Amino acid sequence: MQYEGGHPINAAKRKMLAGKPALGTGSGWASARAAEDLSFSGLDFVLCDLQHGEWTDATVAEGFRAINHGPATPMARVGRNDFGAIGRLLDRGALGIIIPLVNTVEDARAAAYAARFPPHGGRSWGGGPSHYGPRYERWVDDELFLAVQIESITAVENAEAILSVPGVDGCWVGPADLAKSMDIDRETPEGARQQTAAILRVIEACRKTGKIAGISAGLDVSFWLRSGMQFVTMGADSVFMLEGARRAFELAGQGR
Fold first, then answer.
1. 52 catalytically annotated
2. End-to-end CA, the chain
């Protein structure tokens, strides 16, 4: 965690607002040690996943504290677009939050309302993490990065309107679910072409609205960085462990 003016800052968000990409990864294991190690890896943010990962409301606060031992920004994906669930994650220390299954303007407004304190939203005051200082509510809205997840063709078609909602900082494309909603096989050349075209529409919507484009990009992020993506996750804790083990076998001449 990095500090300025006596309080934590979201260095990843500031990097993106300066026009640079922020690279992070997903943390699915409910392992504070693994999350802390990732924070020291050079990544800009570590994203604790409460939708598909093992983190819970009861364990994620420890994960955020562990990430804060290093320079990365603690972020999370909430399990659902729910006022209480969003508020609890923020109360525990997330400085970035991804809201899944945002398909309409109404979905985006609900997310922004839950994540922002009045007068910009309706977030309930439940106290901030003690290590964030006594004036948390005065600075957190500026540092918070709120991304809505674009993962259906409906969301792609509504992307410009969704991203125009005040309080939404950007989006995060879920390519796998997007392909399923389009009823295409993204492993085929034609399916990949159609999916890429849809994602490029989202990037264009971000350009038009002045918001930050993001994606869950796997391990090969170069194309999406060139295309204008700035909020980019690559790999995951489990992926890095598996790839590291495979690489060790290859170096030992035992690849299989």
1. yes
2. 39
Q: Which domain holds residue 127?
A: 2-248
- In single-letter form, the type of residue at position 223 comes to F
Count how many domains the chain has.
1
Question: Does residue 128 lie in a domain region?
Answer: yes
Per-residue pLDDT of the chain (256 residues; tens, 9 = 90+): 788 888 889 999 999 999 999 999 999 999 999 999 999 999 999 999 999 999 999 999 999 999 999 999 999 999 999 999 999 999 999 999 999 999 999 999 999 999 999 999 999 988 778 788 888 999 999 999 999 999 999 999 999 999 999 999 999 999 999 999 999 999 999 999 999 999 999 999 999 999 999 999 988 899 999 999 999 999 999 999 999 999 898 899 865 5
Question: Dmax over Cα atoms in the chain, in whole Å?
Answer: 61
Q: Are 82 and 63 in contact (CB under 8 A)?
A: no
Q: Are 117 and 123 in contact (CB under 8 A)?
A: yes
Set 7, 52, 69, 131: catalytic member: 52
Which CATH number is 137's domain given? 3.20.20.60
Give the integer Cα–Cα distance in Å for 116 and 106: 16
Asked if residue 187 belongs to a domain, the reply is yes
Q: Residue 122 falls within a domain, yes or no?
A: yes
